[in-house]
Amino acid sequence: MESIGFIGAGNMAEALIKGIISAKLYSPKNIFISDIKPDRLKAIIDKYGVTPAATNAKLSAKVDILILSVKPQIMADALKSIQGSVNHAKLVISIAAGIKISQITSVLGDIPIIRVMPNTPALIGAGATAIFAGDKARPMLDKAVAIFSSVGKAVVVDSEDLIDVVTAVSGSGPAYFFLLMEEMIKAATDLGLPEQVAKDLVLQTAKGAGLLAVDGDKRGETPATLRQKVTSPGGTTEAALKIFSDGNIGALIASAIKHARDRSVELSR
Q: Could you report the per-residue pLDDT of 159-200, keeping only the tens digit for each?
């Protein structure tokens, strides 16, 4: 059976391990892992029954698919540690933000590499992930899609440059929704609602709106259509939306996402 390995045992690696075991893509005995923190490594091994590797090089030499799940600032050291132990038969998947495929191939050689941008809701199986495959990795693209579909929705983009846009939209996107929730809770408490009541209502409204949008999309209903359905002429929703419109919320959101995209581009240079 094919094996998979993770260099780095952080939260995203754990989410993926949990997802691929639940989806029965890999058995625990065929999942290998390494990490610089012994306590963290032991915790993952004890929880999921996966197999530890003594070194990054031994792990990368053993597995068919290698996931680089380290922080961007230590990617250079991680790549050096596996230099010479990765061949052209393996698939390397990087989830490190801002690390281009060319940066990886400059160390490991011209091997099959897929670059992925997941987001934090993957931790609860509700992630949004974009995948870009380098030329040599395209025949293996389905494997990456299956892995990341185990923790949510996975889509494929046809240009590596679009990963910067994805970073700004879905990578950073949860924070935008959290900010809206935060401000709605604050506004509700300022108007007299008990904080716990405000929080319960806002969180459930956010959850319900998200689920309704996904369900509506299956029927061809866009978020704009759903918004219009909620907005009665002369009603309370229209009064609130007018304030958003007067404040040019569309331009503000567009500017914020563009600035996030631009920062992602800067970080990858």
A: 999 999 999 999 999 999 999 999 999 999 999 999 999 999
CA-CA distances (angstroms) from residue 150 to 43, 172, 231? 21, 21, 36
In 3-state terms the chain splits into helix, strand, coil percentages (rounded to 5) of 60, 15, 25
Residue for token pair 């989830």: 95
Structure pTM?
A: 0.93
Classify residue 263 by burial, with Cβ atoms within 10 Å: 0-12, 13-18, 19+: middle
Low-confidence ranges of the chain (pLDDT < 50): none
Give residue limits of the domains in the chain. Answer: 4-159, 173-267
Cβ neighbours around 117 below 10 Å, total: 27
| H/E segment holding residue 6 | strand 4-7
Distances, alpha carbon 24 to alpha carbons 18, 89, 138, 149, 184, in Å? 10, 23, 23, 12, 40
What number of CA atoms fall less than 13 Å from residue 265's CA on the CB side? 9
Cβ burial, residue 108 (10 Å; 0-12/13-18/19+) = buried
Q: What distance in Å separates the CA atoms of residue 128 and residue 170, rounded to the nearest whole number? A: 7
Q: Give the CATH class of 4-159.
A: alpha beta
Cβ-based neighbours of 82, under 8 Å, separated by 6 or more:
7, 56, 57, 59, 60, 66, 108
Q: What is the CATH number of domain 173-267?
A: 1.10.3730.10
β-pairing, 4-7 vs 113-117, is unpaired
CA-nearest of 15, 20, 35, 12 to 4 is: 20
Q: Rounded to an integer, what distance in angstroms lies between the CA atom of residue 94 and that of residue 66?
A: 8
Q: Are the C-beta atoms of residues 119 and 131 closer than 8 Å to each other?
A: no
Quick one: which of 130, 93, 95, 129 has its CA closest to 108?
93
